[in-house]
Amino acid sequence: MHIIPVIDLKDGLVVAARQGKRQTYKPLASPLCPQPELPAVIRAYLSVFPFRTFYIADLNAIENNGNNHALITRMLQAHSDISLWIDSGTDPFINDNSVSFRDRVSNVLGSETGISIEQLDHYTRKSDCILSLDYAQGQLLGDPGLLDYPDLLPQRVIIMSLDHVGSHGGPDLERLRTLQEQLPGKQLYAAGGVRNVEDLRQLAANGGHGALLATALHNGTIGSSHLYNFHDQVFAHPDSR
Q1: 2-229 belongs to which CATH class?
Q2: Which pTM was predicted?
Q3: Tens digits of per-residue pLDDT, 214-235?
Q4: Residue 58 forms beta bridges with which residues?
Q5: What angle do CA 144, 215, 79 make, to 5 degrees?
Q6: Which of 21, 111, 118, 155 is the most buried (most CB within 10 A)?
């Protein structure tokens, strides 16, 4: 299992995500990190475990309201040993003209943008990409036809269960099992609802390749002792690929 901490950025600050209701997101203040500034959140995560890959959702870019690219660039400059998965909507952080950080950044392309299989194939050929299949109220947001072309999809696929994010409701194991059948051979990463180590065990038992976490790390239900104690049994050290 790859365990990847999640950071949601809006207007230059880290915000606490809950059930995909972005208009209600507030600046982060948690037991792990009472400050919403990005450098503080990175330090807090690294105090729990030496993570090497982080997922960033640039909510401004996703909502077509500017972006946080400059802030993310400063983070990459400050942490040369860290790689990022970045969802910035239709404004990929790594684009056709980008050179810097290309070996440390993977673009996350969300189905909620309405991306077509042709566009997805274009981006995947140009840079290292990850597909995020975004679900809300049980429905895939975007083009359901994406699932008809598994051979054209990136190797890594995030199952983004927006209704589960920050909800303490547990991961969507049924969706994971369904997509394993639809997308054989893909590396599936669960996002949303993971509460504790038992949830991670269930994801691993059901074929999950990894999990994206925020709330469980911030409230301590998954902490240093869990990650280190189960490192050899459940977890693989995260890497950028």
Answers
A1: alpha beta
A2: 0.92
A3: 999 999 999 999 988 766 555 4
A4: 9
A5: 90
A6: 111
Q: Which amino acid is at 127?
A: S
Q: Are strands 129-136 and 156-161 parallel, antiparallel or unpaired?
A: parallel
List residues bridging with 228 in a β-sheet. Answer: none
Ramachandran category for residue 85: left, alpha or beta (phi over 0 → left; psi -120 to 50 → alpha): beta
Dihedral, 141, 145, 146, 152 alpha carbons, nearest 10: -170
Answer whether 151's CB lies under 8 Å from 131's CB. no
- For residue 226, give Cα distances in angstroms to 158, 188, 213: 23, 22, 14
Per-residue pLDDT band for 28 (boundaries 50, 70, 90) equals: very high
- The residue with tokens 């189905």 is 111
Sequence-ordered list of residues with C-beta below 8 angstroms from that of 80, at least 6 positions apart, any chain = none
pLDDT cut 90: percent of the chain above it:
75
Q: Are 75 and 29 in contact (CB under 8 A)?
A: no
Place of tokens 């997101």: 25
The burial of 167, by beta-carbon neighbours within 10 Å (0-12 exposed, 13-18 middle, 19 or more buried), is given as middle
